[in-house]
Amino acid sequence: MLKLTEIDTYYGDLQALWGISLEVKEGEMVSLIGPNGAGKTTTLQSITGLLRPARGNISFDGHDLLKVPPDKIVDLGISMVMEGGRVFAGMSVMENLELGAYGARARKDRAETIEHVFETFPRLKERLTQRAGTLSGGERQMLAIGRAMMSKPKLLMLDEPSFGLAPILVDAIFEMVKGINKQGVTILLVEQNVRAALELADRAYVIENGRIVGEGSGEALLSFESVRSAYLG
Question: Cβ contacts of residue 192 below 8 Å, gap of 6+?
Fold first, then answer.
C-alpha cells in the first residue's frame, strides 16, 4: 500500500532523514520506533507532504505522493493524527468531526462515518456540543483520532497517541487503535511506549539518527537484546 524508497529529507540545510526505506502492506499495523529526535515525525510529515523530500520516492496505492499536494493526499486515503491530540479548541466536538470530512470522497458518507466514529468512541457522542478545548487529554486524543477517521482513511498514521495520557487511558487508546485496525484500516504507528508499539505491530522498523537500523516482526524485535537494552530497560 505504502512504500518509501531511499528518502532524504531536510530542514533547511540540516539533513534529518538519510535513505529511509520502508513499506506498509494493506491491513497491517506497522510501528516506527526510536529515540526522540530520530526522525519518526519527520518520516510521517514526508509522507503527508508537510515536508518535501529532496531525494527518493514515496508511492501509495500506485500514486507518486511527491507529485501530490497535501490536501489531495488526504483525498487519496491517508490521514495523520499529530502528537498531543491537537484539536480546534474553540469549536465543538461535532464541528471538529465535521471538518474531518471536508474532502469530496468523505463528505458524501459523512452521516454514516460519524455513526461509526461514535461506535468506536462513545464518549464523543456524549460531548457533541462541548467545546473541544474543555475536553480531558484522553477525550481530545479520541477526538483527534475520530476526526481523522471522518476522512475515511485507508492508511491512518498516528504520532505518539499515548503522549501525556494517564496509564489507564493509554491502555484504552491502544485498544481502540487495535479495534480500528481490525476494522480494516491500515495503521502506521509512531509511539514512545516501545513495548506497547511492538506488541501491537505486525511489523516494526527501528530508526536512529535519521536512518533505519532494524526491522522485523513486533514479536521478533521485542526479543532482540539491542532493542530490549536500548528501549525497554
Answer: 36, 160, 162, 163
